[in-house]
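Re: beginner question about structure tokens

> Can someone show what the tokenized structure looks like for a real chain? I only ever see the sequence side.

Sure, here's an example I had lying around. Input first:
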Amino acid sequence: MPNAILQISGPSGSGKTTLARLLASIIPIDQIHLIRFAVQRGDAWADRRKRPLDNRSPEKLPCYVSPETVFESFAEIIPSFETPDHRGLLIVETSAHPCFRHAYPYDAKVFIMSPPGSMEDVFRPAQETAGAIERAMHDTAEFAAELFGLERVDPHDSAWFRAHEDPNRDYSSDTQTVEEFLDSPIGIEITARLQLRPMFQGVVDADVVFLNTAVATNMKTLAACAQRIERILEPVNTRLQRRTYFAAGDPLDRRNAGTEGCLKRIADLLSAAKTIHA
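And the corresponding structure tokens:
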């Protein structure tokens, strides 16, 4: 199997394949292949053929997998991509579905997103975040849904929230428990994750978060979005001692400091992975 495995995830149209092709053009690895994964819908079929990642190769059809069996599917599919002398890089491109976050022990994870039309497209309002945290604390199914995408319910559906509220419960008695939870490592991660809409929660898991500004139309919203992501990642990096790198830029503009910084960080992560696996 390949010497290093890189996951690039993000919403549709965020620039995942563009970033993959750019990396293939600058990373000094001879064998670079791409496979795309998407959530299975209906009778969608799985195309498991890998193709070299270069500008001459045709578009790769996605390999469709079920969220319920994603761990088994990845364990079967990814190791089957043999490369000469176990060298090379496999780029695993996935949708933003949460089932892909922990589907495989990637060597590096990149989350790429486009600027939102509004802040609420990406971030939950404070009251909604508080409600989501409360439910995750007291409902293991909800907790699993938020971390691993194991539930089909859309957690930011306000109608679903209202239907599951307990009007007779006195939440004030849980203040100390909540504070202790929020100050714990898992509480810090959950708090960071639940400030984001489910499609964007990959921000919390990624080694590199890249805000693709190539199609930015509202610079004020772009700046606010970047600042909010930085605020969410700050306690994750400091309290949990992670090193998530965040930057914004046009992936095709190598003169942009954010773009160049992201590319360098990804290259460094892959270089370290090759050293570890060698």
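Each token stands for a local structural state, so reading them left to right follows the chain. Strands lie at 4-9, 32-39, 51-52, 63-65, 89-94, 108-113, 208-212, 245-249.
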